[in-house]
């Protein structure tokens, strides 16, 4: 150890001296201003950004942001270069620190500052940061205003929401090119589910995407950004705060209990289509009927629920079975013909000479108890028809009679369906909406089918 470096005992002695003396002199965050040079704040780290590299005409270096909060308010601090490298590893979300000698300046760019403060802090070489080891119960932890997942449907694009859900699916890590920067970004989609079995996709970025390990854990995200992509989805931003399995929150405890006591880990694996789900026949003990589903929804406000049913297709709406769709990756929007061989996609805002057919199947299914209207999207409808939408339309082009025969061949075919049901209001009337998520044709003599029937009898 070099002569100029104090030994560990001296550091801790200084630290405890600091801890005992500094308390009386702390200033509330809301009182910080540029005319106040001597101050110490005592505040909890509620957000810590990644250590990022920057480069421009003046050079290059590192930068990170951190948000401190006490009961008076919050303020953002930024560290550049040496200060970024020094302070970034010391700070930890959830811990309380004393901070002094950081420069107080007006907020430089509101777009990069999430706090309500008019000023922000810059960490410099004189800044002093010490963790508060005493009782910190008086410093508030992050407060959440959770929006139920179903209600996110009523939020607008780019709204910020606090969301709580159990992670029912974790997608692969992917790399995309950032629109504004042109740089490669790592992203990962995770699916969150709440007690109503409502689900939503949350996109994580960079470090958070790379290190996420939260399957079947409780995930909270403060300030997730609503996107209109694919129905509604959420994206974490630099303003967001992600927590995995923080069971200090009563809402998180309740969700944990619900998930475990309903054996949801197994059920979500079955509905998410991940490899461990096996096939639909393995769900034999959880089949229900249209009659039971309607009873369950009668006069209630419950959100979407998932079921397995055994039913026949009674009727398909043959006129509107397919639509002309945009060929861009991940864009499934309908295109309109805007000239000869020109198709315009409103969502992408561009014209193309190509389109692709996709299914939007609507029809009517029957089981022994009731009948039910359903919708099936492209993938499932292809399974039901045994043809892609493009193949079906080619068949129709060749022969209307063959097309009609193909539709007839589906009628009264029996399937095991995985369905998602919810109540929707149409012309002031409540009606049950059913989307088919998976379909498996019943082969009456197959061993799997016989075993399923046996099990159903056992349960009855
Ligand atoms: Zn498009």
Automatic annotation (TrEMBL):
Residues 40-107 form the OB domain. The lineage of its organism: Eukaryota, Metazoa, Ecdysozoa, Arthropoda, Crustacea. Residues 306-443 form the Replication factor A C-terminal domain. This is Replication protein A subunit. One of its GO terms (cellular component) is nucleus. It is found in: Nucleus. GO terms for biological process: DNA recombination; DNA repair; DNA replication. InterPro entries: Euk_RPA1_DBD_C, NA-bd_OB-fold, NA-bd_OB_tRNA, Rep_factor-A_C, REPA_OB_2, Rfa1. Pfam families: Rep_fac-A_C (PF08646), REPA_OB_2 (PF16900), tRNA_anti-codon (PF01336). Keywords: DNA replication, DNA-binding, Metal-binding, Nucleus, Zinc, Zinc-finger. GO terms for molecular function: DNA binding; zinc ion binding. Belongs to the replication factor A protein 1 family. Component of the heterotrimeric canonical replication protein A complex (RPA). It comes from the Eukaryota. Residues 149-244 form the Replication protein A OB domain.
